[in-house]
Model the fold of this input.
Amino acid sequence: NDASDHQIVSPNNVVQAGVYQHVALTYDRPSGTALLYVNGVVKRMYGLLEKQFRDTFDRASSMKGRAGENLLILLERRLDNVVFRSGYATSRAEARQLVKHGHFRIDGHKVKTPSLLVKAGMKLSLRERSTKIERVSGALEALEGKSVPQWLEVDKESKQSVVKQLPVREDITLPIDEQLIVELYSR
Done:
C-alpha cells in the first residue's frame, strides 16, 4: 500500500488525505473504531482531554440546532483557539500557554482562562508588557501570507483582534465529519 491508499475517516471513507494527513491518515476501519478515531483526532487538534471534550459536547447537544455543528462552533469560540486563529501563536498549545500566563486582555480585562468562550464584539488585545515576546512577534510575522477567518478581524500593528461575528460551520475548514462524534456520544 502506498500513500495514495490513505483516506481521512468519514462516513463513506471517500475524502482523500489533505491538510491534516499527518493527523488523520487511516485505512478503512470498522464503524466503532472509526468513531473513536475521529473523536481522538478532534480532541488532539483542540488539545482537550476527555472530560473537557465531553462537557463541551453536552453543552452543544443542549443548544438549538445540530449538535455536531454546535460542537465545532464551541471549540472554535474557545479563547485559546481565537488566539491561535488570530496569529498570536503557531499552535493551539502555545496559545493556551500564552493565555494561562496572562498575556491577553478581553475588553480591557486580563484573562487567564483558555476555555473562555468569546462572543461577537469582544476585543482581544495583547498586554503591553507582552508585546516584546519573541514567539508572539514571530507568529505574527508568519501570519503575513496566511488568511484569518472571516469572523475575526486582526490588527497586527496594535496587536488587537475583534470577534466580528460568531463562527458558523462554513468558516471551519477542518476535514472533520462531526456527525461521527455525535454518533459516538449518542450511544
